[in-house]
Amino acid sequence: MSRIKIQVDLIIKKGNKILVVAEVKKNYHPKKRRSAIEHQLKPAMDWTNAKFGVYWDGTNKSCLLTWKSDRTFAEKPFSVKK
After folding, report:
1. C-alpha distances in angstroms, 62 versus 49, 74, 75, 79, 80?
2. Is the pLDDT of residue 28 over 70?
3. Strand pairing class (17-24; 52-56)
4. In which order are the strands placed within the sheet that holds 10-14?
5. Over 80: is that where the pLDDT of 41 sits?
6. 3 state DSSP class of 36
7. What are residue 67's DSSP bridge partners?
8. Does the structure show a pLDDT above 90 at 3?
9. Domain segments of the chain: what residues?
């Protein structure tokens, strides 16, 4: 039997349903951001069927991921006020 390892920093559940998975990073870098989204957040959303994904690094590059009707992802940036 193969095992799947999903690593995210936060999961929000309601009952047995996972609603949100989140990945938090520090020391923002574009490659680190893209890697976290592609290799951690999207697979976690797909495997858990979470409705939302959050990538957060404390900058205005942080974003909310949602599913589009064709089962691809839409990224919506957060507005970070300092």
Report:
1. 21, 13, 9, 8, 8
2. yes
3. parallel
4. 10-14, 17-24, 52-56, 63-67, 73-77
5. yes
6. helix
7. 73
8. no
9. 10-77
Q: Is the pLDDT of residue 81 over 90?
A: no
What predicted TM-score, i.e. pTM, was given to this entire model?
Answer: 0.84
Give the position of tokens 């599913």. 67
Distance from the Cα of residue 51 to its chain's centroid: 10
Q: Are strands 63-67 and 73-77 parallel, antiparallel or unpaired?
A: antiparallel
Half-sphere exposure at residue 49, Cβ-oriented, CA atoms within 13 angstroms: 3
d(CA 16, CA 29): 35
Q: Which residues pair with 73 in a beta bridge?
A: 67
Tell me the C-alpha distance between 65 and 40, whole Å: 12
Which stretches of the chain are DSSP H helices? 30-36, 42-48
Question: H or E stretch including 7?
Answer: none
DSSP 60: T
